[in-house]
């Protein structure tokens, strides 16, 4: 039996912007079957925004597929691409509240929650806050945002050893005297109001972010200055604040979601969110179905990852 392919491209039949308070408007869209089983897709990043391909993980005949741009990114407003826009009210609890507000706005009782990378973090956070509203969880590239996970990404002894040229470019964009704390050094520059300072810093930051996304190298996306600043500002904002997660972390809340059917998928060679995070989640939650894809990295579109994710949504169809 061959690998499952993406469902054909599909366009939304409904979209809008939801007033989330404090001047925030959340862009949302719905595609698939209006009478189908509700499912919500949580994109990664944070700050990555939606791509049309995200709609294709679900059978459009069976699912009412809900997607949205998280606060201050994509088509949501105001955009973090404007350096004057404050991110003070962009935290994980705010995003969880936005998901629940969108569910109520669309008159959905319960829905399948699908999230990869940062989307898995947000999916676990939402499910633990509102377990009665989640029918199933489909999770990929588990990101627990623990200090050890951040150490892997931002110190010379982690992913840097596998991507030395990319790490050197990231490190060397900061003066030697400040390299002992690269996250803080980048924060000063990404937050600088001068485009001559924040745009090069944002591009260097995102260059490192994009360097380890797939098992085999792919060209990074071509993003304009506003998009690259949006992505860099929001990603840095969350990383420098521990993902705005409870001090005890996400694993401590597994008992609240233990009875929810779940599928956990990780690439064996995931260099962004190494599979020990998925393994640790599974050890805390052995009832969840667990898959290591032997020939894959981090990307949700890699064939083996794609297969496992679509297999999960197919099996959870009505």
TrEMBL record:
<protein>
    <recommendedName>
        <fullName>Proline iminopeptidase</fullName>
        <ecNumber>3.4.11.5</ecNumber>
    </recommendedName>
</protein>
<dbReference type="InterPro" id="IPR005944">
    <property type="entry name" value="Pro_iminopeptidase"/>
</dbReference>
<keyword id="KW-0963">Cytoplasm</keyword>
<keyword id="KW-0378">Hydrolase</keyword>
<keyword id="KW-0645">Protease</keyword>
<feature type="domain" description="AB hydrolase-1">
    <location>
        <begin position="40"/>
        <end position="299"/>
    </location>
</feature>
<keyword id="KW-0031">Aminopeptidase</keyword>
<dbReference type="InterPro" id="IPR002410">
    <property type="entry name" value="Peptidase_S33"/>
</dbReference>
<dbReference type="InterPro" id="IPR000073">
    <property type="entry name" value="AB_hydrolase_1"/>
</dbReference>
<dbReference type="Pfam" id="PF00561">
    <property type="entry name" value="Abhydrolase_1"/>
</dbReference>
<comment type="similarity">
    <text>Belongs to the peptidase S33 family.</text>
</comment>
<dbReference type="GO" id="GO:0004177">
    <property type="term" value="F:aminopeptidase activity"/>
</dbReference>
<dbReference type="InterPro" id="IPR029058">
    <property type="entry name" value="AB_hydrolase_fold"/>
</dbReference>
